[in-house]
Design goal:
The protein is mostly helical and about 100 residues long. The chain has five helices and no strands.
Length: about 100
């Protein structure tokens, strides 16, 4: 109901017309119109580096070695793609997920 109230208000209906159309009080109309705005954020994301940054080269090397390993000796749960396709995706930075 709140979404319909907001939509009709954007289309130009007055608050009194919204009250009559939906059979609600003025406080409900005001609540519906003000609840559409998100609350301002009080905190920002921290600027600290990731804990994995020190190991990204090692992880990339392990993943490249796994491309040539047999299926049961790989460290990843990647879909069964030919090694050339997996290597191309890894070089481009595309995450391989199952």
């Amino acid at each position: 109901m709140y979404a319909a109230l907001r939509r009709d208000s954007r289309d130009g209906m007055s608050n009194r017309a919204l009250q009559c159309k939906y059979g609600v009080t003025w406080s409900t109309v005001n609540k519906a119109l003000t609840s559409a705005l998100p609350q301002p954020r009080t905190t920002t994301a921290s600027a600290r580096p990731s804990k994995l940054d020190a190991f990204t080269l090692l992880i990339d090397e392990i993943l490249l070695i796994d491309l040539d390993a047999t299926r049961k000796q790989r460290h990843t749960g990647t879909p069964d793609l030919p090694p050339s396709d997996r290597r191309a995706l890894l070089v481009r930075g595309v995450a391989l997920t199952t």
